[in-house]
Design goal:
The structure is a single chain. By secondary structure, the protein is mainly beta. Strand 7 and strand 8 form a beta hairpin. It is globular and about 40 Å long.
Length: about 120
Amino acid sequence: QVQLVESGGGLVQAGGSLRLSCAASGLAFSNYVMGWFRQAPGKEREFVAAMKRLTSYAGDVKGRFTISRDNAKNTVFLQMNSLTPEDTAVYYCAAGFSATLNLMNVYVWGQGTQVTVSA
């Protein structure tokens, strides 16, 4: 059974940092592009970052967020710095095959973890 389990969400003040983790099981982890998406209340789910060997980021998180992965531990991380209230959302881990990971080509989703940034 393929499963992605996120952790590390929580409440943080503006300007603070959080590190999300996503543990994968049931798949050949190193073969997949791993990514993060987020969905704020009343908004569509959107791409945040992705990585296989190279990394890609959404424009509004570039320079603040860093995606990394540990293939030996089947885990992908999202380090989020300089957080703002606009980063408040449920953050979802995702796995797929395409270098340009998007809502249409994600193979499996995690259940999501809430990130709340207070002003």
